[in-house]
Amino acid sequence: MDNFLPGSASLVDCVDKKLLVILRDNRKLIGWLRSYDQFANLVLQDTIERTYVGDTFADVYRGIFLVRGENVVLLGEIDKQKEQEQLSKHLKPAPIEEVKALYDAEMKVRKSREQTKARLLRDRGFSIDVQENDQY
Questions:
Q1: Any bridge partners for residue 52, and if so which?
Q2: Can you give the pLDDT at residue 1?
Q3: What SS3 class is residue 126?
Q4: Choosing a second label site near 7 at 20 to 30 A (CA), which of 27, 100, 111, 123?
Q5: Phi-psi region for residue 15, left (φ > 0), alpha (ψ -120 to 50) or beta?
Q6: Which uninterrupted H or E stretch holds 104?
Q7: Residue 118 contacts by C-beta under 8 Å, 6 or more apart in sequence?
Q8: Is the sign of the CA dihedral 83, 51, 135, 36 positive or negative?
Q9: From residue 117, how far is each of 63, 92, 109, 113, 126 by CA, in Å?
Q10: Is this structure's pTM higher than 0.85?
Q11: Cα–Cα distance between 2 and 53 in angstroms, integer?
């Protein structure tokens, strides 16, 4: 515990490393951390947005990306060798249009399931106050 840095200061070891950042709206960004501030706002370079559906994925290049710290749910360093192994063994790349269509269909099913669940809970006297895209 001697090397523990509180708050956003702990990000100092992550500068100039490739990171996976998962946002509150469930987007996954992969890029090189170039800078951050006391609010954990992040500057990612050569960023791609990766969308997963089942065993397929698609990448969209986003370039320089500024992420507001309050939107970060999780971040972690990516081991380049393990990433390539996992992508080649378990996932297959697909065009973004195809993955987007699969993702939209999956979200439609999930939203329908959540609406049914909320209705059943509301009928039993429970109330759920959740914003549509909030993953907290």
A1: 57
A2: 44
A3: coil
A4: 27
A5: beta
A6: helix 96-123
A7: 128
A8: positive
A9: 39, 33, 12, 6, 11
A10: no
A11: 41
The angle formed by the CA atoms of residues 58, 60 and 66, to the nearest 5 degrees, is 130
60 residue type, one letter: V
CA–CA gap between residue 73 and residue 82 (Å, rounded): 22
Cβ–Cβ under 8 Å, residues 42 and 69: yes
- Strand, coil or helix: 85: helix
Tell me the pLDDT band of 122, cut-offs 50, 70 and 90: confident
Query: Residues 104-126: what's their mean pLDDT?
Result: 89
Q: Tokens for 81, please give them.
A: 């060798």
**Whole-angstrom distance, CA of residue 99 vs CA of residue 115:** 24
State how far the Cα of 135 lies from the Cα of 118, in Å rounded to an integer: 16
Instruction: Give the DSSP letter string of 13-66.
Output: GGTTSEEEEEETTS-EEEEEEEEE-TT--EEEEEEEEEEEETTEEEEEEEEEEE
Q: What is the pLDDT of residues 70-81, one digit of tens each?
A: 999 999 999 888
Residue range 32-46, pLDDT digits in tens? 999 998 888 999 999
